[in-house]
Specification:
There is one protein chain. Helices cover 37% and strands 0% of the residues. It is mostly helical. The protein is elongated and about 40 Å long. The two termini are 20 Å apart.
Length: 65
């Protein structure tokens, strides 16, 4: 997610609206990354903890990678 509730002076990310990719899109992306040989992923953006389904996203990483 690009959403973030903080206003850190060093950050250029403005609080974005919630248009996070759906879980199925993330599943497809992770599968493609695995097929390409990616061994790890990192969560960045705004504040990943604002995703209500973050636990599901993390679980998908274990399935895909």
């Amino acid at each position: 997610t690009d959403r973030c509730g903080y206003r850190c002076p060093r950050c250029s990310n403005v609080s974005a609206p919630a248009n996070d990719p759906p879980l199925e899109s993330i599943r497809r992306t992770l599968s493609a990354l695995k097929a390409a040989g990616v061994a790890s992923v990192a969560f960045t953006g705004g504040e990943p903890l604002l995703r209500e389904d973050l636990a599901d996203v993390v679980a998908l990483c274990g399935e895909a990678l």
